[in-house]
Write a structure and sequence with these properties.
single chain, alpha+beta, 2 domains, four-stranded antiparallel sheet, 3 helices, elongated
């Protein structure tokens, strides 16, 4: 070998001889022992299956919740009676079933969300109930 060939070989860096590479039969690719290779296929599908099951159970829970909201009765306006509305410089109040109710308070399971001149809007289970005074 000439001096030029030897200098080029040194400049390129150390060469990898076959003895430096891992033995694929005993360690597997990436240094994984051969004994754990038989579980590699299980690990490959276990993650996606667990994610799919989690999504399935979450979706089923949401569906059951929505069905429960749909079939449970909403209080009818006859159970809730608006006796009057108090307006002034402060927060408007509603008198519902003989009780003074502030915005955000709950009466008969419904939350007062808005008070108008002769109306009060309540929300129960994502449904709105509008009460009117007898004027």
């Amino acid at each position: 070998m000439s001096l030029i060939d030897e200098a080029l070989r040194k400049a390129q860096g150390p060469s990898h001889s076959p003895s430096v590479l891992p033995d694929v039969k005993t360690t597997g690719w990436g240094g994984v022992p051969a004994a754990s290779r038989k579980f590699a296929s299980v690990r490959a599908w276990l993650g996606p299956v667990l994610i799919g099951l989690a999504l399935l159970f979450l979706t089923a829970g949401v569906i059951v919740w929505q069905v429960w909201l749909y079939i449970t009765p909403v209080p009818s306006p006859t159970q809730l009676e608006l006796h009057g509305v108090v307006e002034g410089t402060g927060e408007p109040l509603a008198i519902i079933n003989g009780r003074i109710v502030h915005l955000g308070e709950t009466v008969e399971g419904a939350t007062l969300v808005e008070v108008g001149k002769h109306t009060a809007r309540l929300r129960r289970r994502k449904r709105d109930i509008v009460l009117r005074t007898a004027q």
